[in-house]
Amino acid sequence: MRYALLGDIHSSVEDLRDVLNDIQKHAPDAELIGTGDLFECIISKKRAPFERFGKLDDVMLYSDELMDMLTFPSVRGNQEDRIAQITESDEPLLQRIRTMEERFRIEEKAEVIHGHQWEWGGDPWMPVFPETGPDLIFFGHSHDSGLSIDNQVEEVGFGIPYDVTKGRTFVNVGAVVGDRSWVLYDSDAGIVIFMKVID
């Protein structure tokens, strides 16, 4: 089975359209899975603890065109967490955001999580990976495509298959917004391929 993982869209309709077209071109059979931050919250982290809003229009960027493209399941990111925290409304979209899972499994082989739940730091900015859990984890959050196997950061290139069966592996799928990148995961072959829309 093949999966196309994409995230950190931040409400960018143009970038998402390009990535979805790229997925259709290279992997039309792939099942799409989101790694969170589908939406852009327009209320800052500093303001969020002190303010509440009655409608999503005051809190986030979205459009009918964006919603028409968001047909795939996704874990929730920090943007969705903030939107849910500061909005008090019965709008169906808010209920959808609130029920997004924090993590889920792919065929019991891999886990998908946004990654904001982890501690981050250092230069380059990297997460402190959890010591327990499945041997293959897909995440986002930093907007940087990346691969770490047994705590060793690997150099990655686009269009190149990488074996994800030889150790505890963390795959940062990169960002749709700005970078227009995504990851193709072949669970049968045990490989990932970092993909990027090329103009």
Describe it for me?
There is one protein chain. By secondary structure, the chain is an alpha+beta fold. The chain has a single domain, classed as Purple Acid Phosphatase, chain A, domain 2 (4-Layer Sandwich), CATH 3.60.21.10. The protein has 4 helices and 15 strands. A 6-stranded mixed β-sheet has the order 5-6-9-13-10-11, with no helix packed on it. The longest helix is centred in the N-terminal third of the chain and has 14 residues, at 13-26. It comes from Bhargavaea cecembensis DSE10.
The H/E string reads: EHEEEHHHEEEEEEEEEEE
User: How far apart lie the N and C ends?
Assistant: 28 Å
Shape: globular
Total DSSP helices: 4
Concise overview:
The protein has 199 residues and is of the alpha+beta class. Helix content is 18%, strand content 29%. It has one domain (2-196): Metallo-dependent phosphatases (Purple Acid Phosphatase, chain A, domain 2, 4-Layer Sandwich), CATH 3.60.21.10.
Features:
alpha+beta; Purple Acid Phosphatase, chain A, domain 2; six-stranded mixed β-sheet; five-stranded mixed β-sheet
